[in-house]
Amino acid sequence: MPPILSASAVTKRYKSGLTALDAVDLQINRGEIFALLGPNGAGKTTLISIICGTVTMTSGQVLVDGHDIAGEYRGARAKIGLVPQEIAIDIFATVWNTVCFSRGLFGRRPDPAYIERLLRDLSLWEKRKSRIIELSGGMKRRVMIAKALSHEPELLFLDEPTAGVDVNLRRDMWALVRSLRTRGVTVILTTHYIEEAEEMADRVGVINKGRIILVDEKAALMRKLGKRRLTLALQEPMDVIPADLADWRLELDDDGRRLTYSFDANAEDTGIPSLLRRMDDLGIDFHDLETTKSSLEDIFVRLVEGAA
C-alpha cells in the first residue's frame, strides 16, 4: 500500500541565507501515529507548514495520497486536517457554527449528523451553542480539533496538541488520538512532551537543524538505542569510584550513596556479574538494587547531541 504522505528532498531556504529544511525525505504510512520530535528551531513547524500549503518550499516534492501539493493543491489540501499550536478561532461564534463553517470552506456539503457525532466524540456536544469566548482553554483546543476534522480528512497534523493543558486533559487527548486511528485517520504530531510520543506513537522521527536524523518504529528504536541502568544503594557512602572499578561505566550520585551502571541489555555480556563480584572482592556492600530502561527522552537527547 503506498504511503499517504511522501516528502522527497524538501528544502526551504530563506533570502537571509537560513536553511530551515535541508533535503528532507519522509514517508508516512496509512493509519499510523507518527511523532516528529526535535528541539526548538529544528524545522518541525516549517515542514508541516509546507505540507499544509501555508509555506512554499524552495525545492522538492510532496505527495499527499498521490496528489502533488504544488500542482494539485486542492486535492492534496482536502486530505489534510491541521491543528496549529496557537488557538485561532472567532471567539464570538458558537461551537456549532465554527465547525460547520470550517466544513464549508472545503466545499463539503452540510452534514449535521456527522458534525453531531464529531462534537460528541470530542465531548463538545453540550457546548455546541456556547460561544468560543465562554470556553476553557482545553475546550478551545478540542474545538480546534473539531475544525480540523470537520471536512473528514485522512491525514491529521497536531502541532504541539497538549501544550499548556493539564495532565488529565492531556490523557484525554491521547485517548482521542487513538480513537482517530481506529477510524482510519493517519495522525502526525509534533511534541515537546517526550512521554507523549512514547505513549502513543507507532513510529518516531527526529529532526534537528533542518535534517531528519532518524526515523524508526518506536519499539525498534528503544531496542537499538535504549540502555539499561543498574542502580546500587550502597551501605556506606563513597567519596570516589575506586580505580579497580574503572572497567565499568559507573556514576556516583546522591552524595555517594548510589552507584549507577549503564549497560546494553542486548549485549552477550552485560558486565553485571563481574561488577558485583569485583565489588564483593573490594568489600563494597549494598542494601538494594534496581534496574531501569532508558526512556525515549534519553534516546532523543543522545541523538540530538550526537548530531550537533
Account of the 3D structure:
This is Multidrug ABC transporter ATP-binding protein. GO terms for molecular function: ATP binding; ATP hydrolysis activity. Keywords: ATP-binding, Nucleotide-binding, Transport. This protein is α/β, with parallel strands linked by helices and 308 residues long. It folds into 2 domains: 5-223, Rossmann fold; 226-307, Alpha-Beta Plaits (2-Layer Sandwich). 33% of the residues lie in helices and 27% in strands. The protein has 10 helices and 14 strands. It has helices at 44-52, 73-77, 95-105, 112-121, 137-149, 167-182, 194-200, 218-225, 272-281, 296-307, and strands at residues 5-13, 19-28, 33-37, 59-64, 67-68, 80-83, 155-159, 186-190, 203-208, 211-217, 228-234, 250-253, 258-263, 286-293. The strands form 3 sheets. It has a 6-stranded mixed β-sheet with strand order 6-7-8-3-9-10, with helices on both faces. A 4-stranded antiparallel β-sheet has the order 2-1-4-5. A hairpin with a 5-residue loop joins β1 and β2 (19-28). α3 runs parallel beside α5 (137-149). The chain is elongated. The two termini are 36 Å apart.
Layout of helices and strands:
Layout: E1 5-13, E2 19-28, E3 33-37, H1 44-52, E4 59-64, E5 67-68, H2 73-77, E6 80-83, H3 95-105, H4 112-121, H5 137-149, E7 155-159, H6 167-182, E8 186-190, H7 194-200, E9 203-208, E10 211-217, H8 218-225, E11 228-234, E12 250-253, E13 258-263, H9 272-281, E14 286-293, H10 296-307
Parallel strand pairs: 3-8, 3-9, 6-7, 7-8
Antiparallel strand pairs: 1-2, 1-4, 4-5, 9-10, 11-13, 11-14, 12-13
Helix pairs in contact: 3-5
